[in-house]
Amino acid sequence: MKKIILFVALLSCFVGKAQYNSLAPWNTTNSSAKSERVSIDEVVQSFNQYWENRDHSKRGSGFKPFLRWENHWRNKTNDQGYLITPQEMWDAFNQKKAAKANKSSNLLMLPTSNWEPVGPFTHSNTGSWSSGQGRVNIVYVDPSNPNTIYIGAPAGGIWKSLDAGTTWAPLSDNLPQIGVSGIAVDPNNSNVIYVATGDCDASDTYSIGVLKTTNGGATWNTTGLTFTGTNKLAGDILMNPSNSNMLWAATTDGIYRTLNGGTTWTLEQAGNFSQGRIRLKPGDPNTVYAVSTNRFYKSTNAGDTFSSLATGLPFSSGRMLMDVTAADSNYIYILSTTTSGAMQGVYRSTNGGTNWTLTSGTNDTFNGSGQSGYDLAFAVSQTNANEIYTGCLNVWKSLDAGATFNQLNSWSAPTQATYTHADIHYLQFFGTKLYCGSDGGVYVSENNGTSFTDKTAGAQISQFYKIAVSKQSASKMVGGLQDNGGHAYSGSQWKNYYGADGMDTAIDPTNSNLYYGFIQFGSNLYISTNSGNSLSSGVGAPAAETGTNDDGGNWITPLVANNTGELFAGYSNLYKLVGGAWQLQNAGSPTGSGNIELVAVDPSNDDNMYVVNGSGLHKSTNRGLTFTQVYSAPGNITSIDVHSSNSNIIYITTQGTSGQALKSINGGTSFTSFSSGLPAIGKNVIVHQGRDTNNPLYLGTSLGVYYTDDTMSQWEPFDTNLPNVSVTDLEINLEDEKIIAATYGRGIWQSAIQIQTPLNDIKFNEIQNPSSVNINCANAVTPQVSVKNNGSNTINSVNFNYTVNAVTYTFTWTGTINSEQTQVISLPAVTLPKGIYTMNVVSTIAGDAYSDNNSGSTNFYLNNSGTVNVTNTFETATDELIEYNESSTTGIWTRGVRTGGALASGLNNVYSTNLTGNYPDLTKSYLVSQCYDLSSLAGPQISFKMAFDLENNWDLTYVEYSTNFGQTWQVLGTQGPNWYNSNRTPESSGTDCFNCVGAQWTGTNAALTTYFYSLAALSTETNVIFRIVFHSDEAENNLGVVVDDFLISGTLANESFNLNNIQIYPNPSTGIYNISAGNATIDEIVVYDVMGKIINSNKNIQTNGSNSTIDLTSISSGIYFVKITANEQSTVKRIIKK
User: Fold this and answer.
1) Is the fold of 275-291+314-459 the same as that of 766-862?
2) Is the Cβ–Cβ distance between 276 and 292 less than 8 Å?
3) For residue 936, what are the contacts with CB-CB under 8 A and spacing of at least 6?
């Protein structure tokens, strides 16, 4: 540890985050593009001008990488708007170290921090169309041990694996945060490692040049190649295999060479090579090849001098990559792009670079992308000189030197065996293994691209924008990642449940299973109702907020839930999620102009809301209906938090190196700075810890987390075991006494925090019954709740005030609950009709210290029993079924007459996904049957009529059943002539059918068709519920589904006594049937078809006491059921008409 501290003291340049890609097309006219100091506003202005008349919505346009950069660096500028330099970040780091070394009285009062990593270390894909975990810039295999692999992340440093990528360990956590774009390892001594620092593709981190370790990464040292400016980048670094003291490094200045292991470096060839490549001629370390942005260079004296060779190469290029092959040492390939970032072609030299020929045909292996300045990769097989690979959005392969290409994978098909996520940054053969680094992680192919294996598991390199944590449990959270969508955490597992750039997120405080997540611009909200185990539904941005080149709100559109679970989003106006759609909340623009940047809700009063635009703080006291500006801050506001129990106290932070932490004690009218102890770096987020009279505060910065409270005079570092990393968000869970930090490069971390124990406090744990999962098949419910004594005194009585759909009930429980003890309490039963209900429960005790942990809420369903052999025609209100969406108690299934289109139902009532038009996108909705007892039936069967028009293989419908009151559901049946028309799964389809369950209807059958399926496997079940599931994806919608005449049928088991003697003969018959009832008197006979329709009335039935005759000569041949009622009891017999 002392050695590490000594190294850090020697490091002269902080490796924070910085520069932009100066070669991007919008920077070509910027006078500051190549200067040492850059104004962020200058770059943004050039960017906006470039995109003014261009379409940024196309995948690979290059629009998103820049906005990621701007968002990351906007809070890391000085008062003049210039990006802070490495030296300024280094000074801030030294200030932090000095604060920790100062054994002041503050530190004696500082609570202990102990940060632990939460991940993601690995994840499962539960709904993402582009599943991934974190960006990888570079892969390097130890030349002396193929099982030792290194990867470099843009903001997560260098990682090492000793088992070919099965497990990973970080090597640079004790450094200030670095990115890595180049790695070289001494073949004679694996403890000697060189890294080219920074992020040469997107500038997520500064480059300070080349670092070196001689002890396998335990400590690092600077070399003679050190950068101090904000506009330097380093990429490829290559070691001479015959002389490990000789290395070449590709930088924005040119090709540097060292002859003494990095002590000194010489610029051998000027030019911008940071995104180019350096390669050695196979078998000849004196012949060095290099490509800059637009030139090819060759050296025959180990890099002492270089010559430019251009015969046959394009006159102008935007970026070049190069590779060589051991299969033919004279072959060199170059992949070249246009100045606008599109594919220009593959060029080959067969004579060591003297002449070049365009080999590529008409294939655009960039898939139309124009962002090759961000993602571009190229590799040549080492055993076949004609086998080449390109990467941009996807990986392509050619076996004829580029004349033709075959696309190996698709970024939106994560179930493909060849999947590697979008945005390919690195391709390289090491021996016969092809390694790929992408925005999703590191992948390897051992069969020339036939399949790729994800090797990212174990590398905690995710770049999080935001994180949300459940109010009930710190083990439930959801966050938004750079280009890896929304990652949900529950059950100690991470699940990637949607794709794109995951942004702001929220968890319903009344339902810890209900997760929300935005993507960029708030253009879509993705919802999971089961803690991320699946993607349940989605909601597009409000139509009023979108238009040409306008996808909604800001890059990070704010999202927040209040105490009751109401969800709000900030676009140019404030919106509330109502019934699965955004509803305008405010009257008039809340901030005057521009998009809302931050939204906050008062934890102790949902009516108080705050929104921020720039430096303006605007307040509402009526839940967002109207706003008034109450304060103008001394800089742009970067975060806001309201005191947990005092509505008058508000905290904000402001932007830039001179930004402050500010506090208001009068509801936001005025603020006072309390910034002592904070270094001159970006202050990203501030949070207040409740249930503590000392008012603890935590502040996330570009250098970790700081802490202060009412007993301290200044802020102090709160970062034990936390890597030196930019903290983008903080959340506190009081129930588990944890603080959670989201970082941009090192994933999620958490630390224990101290909570004061009050004398008297009741904590409401949960409503155990009824459950939002179960469907009750009864007309009454007995609520059961769990509470905990969070105080030190014994509790002897608890008052409950609970409502069911706004009807209020009260109950006082008496008994004994000792400190820290949990008690389950039954409340009086409530009788209700069939329907969907919301129950809210509030528990209180005398002298209750905290009110923020007293309540709970749940939705629940009451069903009733269905009658077998009776068709539900949906014609009357009594025929209505329970229906709901997975993410809402309001569903899309509607009972009525379907009008218009091919699915029109005429005059009959049906259930339809939309009675007048198309169904919505990204929706999962359920139509739930009544509860059925099948144990009294012989040969039970389900049947209904259905017509459907669905996007083929993308949208679908199917039937599920439950035998445990809805706790779990199984798909009913398989593909068959009278049932499903598809058996596809995501695994079998490859590029579509992501929602497919392996048995479903999809495509179109507009005719109302009878479908039926045997329930013989369920014939012993006494309580079975069925539901018709409709599931649509995020794009393209059709007419939907129409359902009618739902029936559960079968032959009733014979009753006891004389009903056993009832006989029908002859059977089968051509039409005349005799019925003998023995000594019973027949009261009624009704004949049904297999669908439950009455096909014969009493006028054709002759009864004579216990004997009757049925004439069915006029009906079609088939199977029918005869219901015979005698002596007020009934039985059903099956007959066959010939």
Assistant:
1) no
2) yes
3) 868, 1052, 1053
What are the tens digits of pLDDT across the range 716-730?
999 999 998 999 999
| Residue partners of 650: CB distance under 8 A and separation at least 6 | 610, 640, 641, 642, 643, 663, 664, 667, 668, 671
Q: Does the pLDDT at position 136 exceed 50?
A: yes
**Phi, psi for residue 281 in degrees, rounded to 5:** -65, 125
Cα angle, residue 569 at apex, residues 566 and 570 outer, rounded to 5°: 145
Confidence class of residue 40 from pLDDT cuts 50, 70 and 90? confident
Q: Is the model's pLDDT at 475 over the cut of 50?
A: yes
Burial of 1099 (0-12, 13-18, 19+ CB in 10 A): exposed
| 1055-1137 maps to CATH 2.60.40.3080 | yes
Q: In CATH, which of 3.40.50.300, 3.30.1490.20, 2.120.10.30, 3.40.1190.20 is domain 275-291+314-459? A: 2.120.10.30
**pLDDT digit string (tens) for 605-659?**
999 999 999 999 999 999 999 999 999 999 999 999 999 999 999 999 999 989 9
Q: Tell me what pLDDT residue 14 has.
A: 32
What DSSP designation does 547 have?
B
Alpha-carbon span 478 to 489, nearest angstrom: 6
Helix locations, 435-565, DSSP H: none
Tally of CA atoms within 13 A in the half-sphere of 650 that contains its CB:
28
Rounded CA gap, 555 and 372, in Å?
22
CB atoms within 10 A of CB 120: 26
Cis peptide before 154 (omega within 30 of 0): no
463 pLDDT above the threshold of 80: yes
User: Taking Cα atoms as reference points, which of 543, 503, 498, 539 lies closest to residue 520?
Assistant: 503
Q: Does 892 or 773 have the greater pLDDT score? A: 892
Query: Could you tell me which residue, 50 or 1001, shows the higher pLDDT?
Result: 1001
Q: How many CB atoms lie within 10 A of CB 214?
A: 15
CATH 3.40.50.1980 fits 1-12+137-273, yes or no: no
Pairing assessment for the beta strands 1129-1137 and 661-664 based on DSSP bridges: unpaired
Lowest mean pLDDT, pick from 33-42, 173-182, 697-706: 33-42
| Structure confidence at residue 5 as a pLDDT band (50, 70, 90) | very low
Tokens of 129: 């169309």
Which of residues 464 and 90 earns the better pLDDT score?
A: 464
Beta bridge mates, 1110? 1073, 1101
Structure tokens at 1038: 């059709």
Distance (Å, whole) CA 353 – CA 971: 62
pLDDT of 1010: 94
Q: Strands 1101-1104 and 1094-1096, how do they pair?
A: unpaired
Furthest C-alpha separation in the chain = 117
Q: What share of the chain is helix, strand, coil (3-state, %, to 5)?
A: 5, 40, 50
877-1051: which CATH architecture? Sandwich (2.60)
Q: Which fold has domain 766-862?
A: Immunoglobulin-like (2.60.40)
pLDDT for residue 83 is more than 70: yes
Calculate the alpha carbon distances from 717 to 95, 99, 672, 728, 746 in Å: 10, 7, 21, 16, 18
Q: Is the dihedral of CA 586, 592, 597, 598 positive or negative?
A: negative
3-state secondary structure of 231: coil
Tell me what the mean pLDDT of segment 336-361 comes to: 95
Query: How many degrees, rounded to 5, is the angle at CA 906 between CA 904 and CA 911?
Result: 65
2: Cβ contacts below 8 Å, ≥ 6 apart: none
- CA–CA gap between residue 855 and residue 763 (Å, rounded): 8
Who contacts 992 (Cβ-Cβ below 8 Å, separation ≥6)? Answer: 953, 954
